[in-house]
Design a protein that fits this description.
Two copies of one chain form a homodimer.
Chain A lengths: L7 E9 L5 E6 L8 E2 L2 E3 L6 H13 L7 E6 L10 E9 L11 E7 L11 H14 L1
Parallel strand pairs in A: 1-6
Antiparallel strand pairs in A: 1-4, 2-3, 2-7, 5-6
Amino acid sequence: MALPVTPALTTDCVVLDAAGRVLLIRRGNPPFQGQYALPGGFVDVGETVEDACRRELKEETGLTVGALKLIGVYSDPKRDPRGHTCSVAFLAHVDAAEPKAGDDAAAAAWVKVWRGETLAFDHAQILHDAERLAAAD
Amino acid sequence: MALPVTPALTTDCVVLDAAGRVLLIRRGNPPFQGQYALPGGFVDVGETVEDACRRELKEETGLTVGALKLIGVYSDPKRDPRGHTCSVAFLAHVDAAEPKAGDDAAAAAWVKVWRGETLAFDHAQILHDAERLAAAD
């Protein structure tokens, strides 16, 4: 049985360190090239969203994390100019680590004050929701 | 820009009534034809997962519900024999309503004791998670 065409499935990861900083990349490719974004990407057929989240985080920043906590699911048809994507966003914590940019990321860094930055996609909304979730822990 | 092929996006809805019963359908088509399942189905390109959840619930049971609460995201590559699907599951409550089977549903009914039943897909796991979420409210 062939599966119907649906929105494309993506995942994004909000990683916070012990100082409350968030791990962001600079996008190396369009759309939003050069802007800050959360590490993430498309889910491959045959992998879970959690595995995809860890894979993309590793590819783009070199980091590995422990437990992933579901933040939310973001499926506004206009969230991605390439077409309809749906992102499953996760929260993770690390004590300290030095990110190393790779794959689609032109740079990767810990950012203390992200509210003054222009973030790609709906990543500002995801970060807001992540901080609320982290505060409730 | 063409989007890559990813797992197909689906949604399922756990509806509980005031008596703690859960709304289940009997599947009218393969896979799991004739078995109990949660109302749900594939997300269309151009609609949010929340809108898809309400649409499928309406099509299969005739019911409309208020707030949807995210239960979880289920993306095991083996969860659906047709191919890799990822379901975003939501919880909703209704005081009382008479379901009316339609679309893919051969029947729709309130079920008090679902644990003795064989449920399609990973819907038993979704129901377990939904009841834990509902108890924590």
